Amino acid sequence: MSTDPRFLIVDDFSTMRRIVRNLLKEIGYSNAEEAEDGVVALNLLRQSKFDFVVSDINMPNMDGFALLKSAKADENLKGIPFLMVTAEAKKEDIVNAAQSGASGYIVKPFTKATLEEKVQKILQKSA
Amino acid sequence: MGHSDGFSLHNGDAAGNENTGLNAQAKPADEANGSAPTEDIYHRIGHLTRTLHDAMRELGYQESLSDARDNLPDARDRLAYIARLTGDAAEKVLNSVDRARTVQGEITARAQGLRDRWAAVAVYTSGAAAPAGAAAERATPAGAALVDETCAFLASLDSQADLTNGILTDIMMAQDFHDLTGQVIRKVVALATTLEEQLVKLLIDATPVEQRKKVDPVILEGPVVNPENRTDVVSDQAGVDDLLASLGF
Prior knowledge:
The structure holds two protein chains of two kinds. Chain A is an alpha/beta fold.
């Protein structure tokens, strides 16, 4: 894992992408790109190297679950940790995310402390 | 009346067809226990349905359906308007937060430079660095107090900046309402769309059979992917509106 990990923030709401980007910057990670849905995200992941994906679930075109499963099924992408940040709070969604290979799951609305804790934990585990 | 005839004929056929199968099994039992024949029950249900349908029509039920259906697109537009405006507001707040952070950063940086210089002034005015034999104090009491107060203020700016940044983070995080409410609005819009489709279906069901046949296939097929190659489907909402208008709704 790079000392300056590159993040991909995936959310169909630009406001949320901006919030996550700013929070990551406050935490100390300013290297981040954005995608508005799973299709765009998957293309970006295949085009250049990313170290961490922070993804929403409920999105048009390709949702977060489909993105996660596609990435985990791809030999070149399966090692990238996924942190799901979503308003979906159903247990089956959380279990589904975990079984699909997500490294973490945050339910919106969330705090800076929660995001920081999950990101740090996942990065330490991936190191 | 054409409308009533069409409706009763349609239901009568359906009831009659089902009767043939169901009645064949039910009849012996009916005859055995002496109850009314099942045919009669179906006939009465059909009659009740026809009466209900006629009553709804006379009460203007179709017009109500038509009004409700006409109002749904407007409701969707209003919801979309709310989503757009709240989104714009959230973006404006985030822009302001970014600008405030920049200003805060500049103030903190300038304070850092001034703090070091004022610390040197404080040492000088207190006489702590004065050579032996020189006057210990190089400022009036008021001047020395002002220097001390300025140094204390500049020293406190870091913690003040941390506090302000924390508040700005809270303001930024509060903008997540746009994402959360936006998702709810999106679901309501989807619900309104489904409701509208059902209302259109209901309206068409309530039309005379001859005209209903013209539009039934469109309803059952779901979304049409190649309307330009077909003459039996509508390609947009205006087409739906025109069709409904031609049916008198």
